[in-house]
Amino acid sequence: MAAELRDYIAVYNREWGLTSDTTDAFVAFDSVQKSYDGETLVVKDLNLSIGKGEFLTMLGPSGSGKTTCLMMLAGFETATHGEITLAGKPINNIPPHKRGIGMVFQNYALFPHMTVAENLAFPLEVRKIGRSEREEKIARALDMVQMGAFGGRRPAQLSGGQQQRIALARALVFEPELVLMDEPLGALDKQLRETLQFEITNLAHELGITTVYVTHDQTEALTMSDRVAVFDDGRIQQLAAPDQLYEQPQNSFVAQFIGENNTLMGTVSKIEGGVAEVTLDGGEVIDTVPVNVSQVGERTLVSIRPERVEFNKDRLHPDAHTLKAEVKEFIYMGDIYRTRLSVAGNEDFIIKTRNAPDQRRLNPGEMIEIGWRPEDCRALDA
Amino acid sequence: MSGLPPYASTGQRAWYYGFRVICGLIFFFLMAPILVIIPLSFNAQDFFTFTPEMLRLDPAGYSLQHYEDFFTNPDWQQALSNSVRIAPAATVLSVVLGTLAAIGLSQSHVPFKGAIMAILISPMIVPLIISAAGMYFFYSRVGLQGTYLGVVLAHAALGIPFVIITVTATLVGFDRSLTRASASLGANPVTTFFKVQMPLILPGVISGGLFAFITSFDEVVVVLFVGSAGQKTLPWQMFTGLRDQISPTILAVATILVVISVALLTVVELLRRRSERLRGMSPG
Hints:
The complex is a heterodimer of chains A (382) and B (284). Chain A is of the alpha+beta class. Helices cover 26% and strands 33% of the residues of chain A. Chain A contains nine helices and 19 strands. Chain B is mostly helical. In chain B, helix 4 crosses helix 7 (148-172) and helix 4 (74-106) runs antiparallel to helix 9. The radius of gyration of chain B is 24 Å and the shape is globular.
């Protein structure tokens, strides 16, 4: 079984252009566990391989173990069990200052008593790099984050976004091969966050640095990452590329945590040819993709993305199952229309439609029929 | 300090002015005994009172003779040199040990933190005479009684609580992620301490050191017990002066000590403000 699974993962990774083979992984967690009190495990049996140059995001709610994983990689926490390797070498017994890993903190952690240039010089001085080379590297790093003119300022004289740019430059100035980022954009406003998301991803790819990024913001995770590891309850719930994570969630936690999601409860009534027929609690029957249901009679949570729901009959497959729905509320959001429906006992069934010239606005009280492609509708664990 | 808002009631008005009067009285109560010795120290007579000439502001009523006595009398000079040797040594010791203790106690994994803290602070709480008597018996046993080192150690024990308290207070505002950042940038714990942590807690270290210095410089009870004639400090000499001869030279010395204390406090406060402004911790 285990061998089968490994083969499956290998094939799967090759198809998606991902490396998961522990032998050539740049960073690897091997059955890592962490407990603070000796009783409850914050991280439970973590296995994760990160390829060289990859941008991997650890995403999850607070208390899911993602930050603990990052801290273990940085060396500020020790794994209770298991091994972490960096470039093939175990690092469990290497103190943080000898790991050579760059790190960006949520609160910037710039040294307030030093100027920007002194902050950047710090890792270079520690490494005994000569003055001229140091200055050259500092100038290059500051230019990289478009802060070339700010070398003489003190951190307190800079805005939050500028401080985080400096923190980024400081984490990169000593040319580490691995950079860790712990919710670096958490304290910034939305617009700045989007600009910096873009800049960070570009920089990481240009410099070819391996990046491990921790966030609880799923948009950030989807837009920035090569792969996302969704954490919950100390385990990785799913590790996949953003599009796959969004479109093919492996369990109901991932489906509900990533993006907006409609759920319907039901029981599997038939599984045939890769399609599971689900009888909803209200008696309606729909076709779904069986993801982690395998038996008839099993309870299931059916998940459909709001933008994949269709109410225009012309666009639906002729023999697709449809459901009756009552329009409850219409919300105009500019680029999209967001409509709340009552479907099969679910009062919070959301559909999203693009604000296009030919798009119809639904009115509250209206009765409509909705449907979707069976492959967009996934039967997950209840 | 914009004064009263226009909607203030009579009661609020009364309190507004009453509060200022109370504050003024408190300051007067605290400062008058200190301020009054300053003119008295310029007395031309050997008295502790204002002479009629002084009250008439007649220059003949004033003189610097007591200051002259202080700077020429070998007893006073011996006491001054003892104080100047003991206080800085005790201060350095207090600062080093107190800072290390405060940093150690701020770590989350230290067991019995409360108990250790209480023991270290106890010299500040226990009546001085009890500490002094205890030190006397202990130091006699180990051969420290009546030695220069003994007095320095005793004064350091009295100064350490001040350093621990002020440094602990600055450590509360110290961002732990700075030490992590420093480690991630490749600095070992020692470099991190001297380059990152120390500069940031320096204001607390300096004010603790100042308190420790003043404690040692003003201390009379412990030195009477632990010291011998060879370690006679300024306060001790003042104490004997009061008992034996009531010489107004004491007033001159007291004035000099007040001036030194005020100057020290001012300098340190200015330095502290400057460093805080530099690192942008306060808008001033």
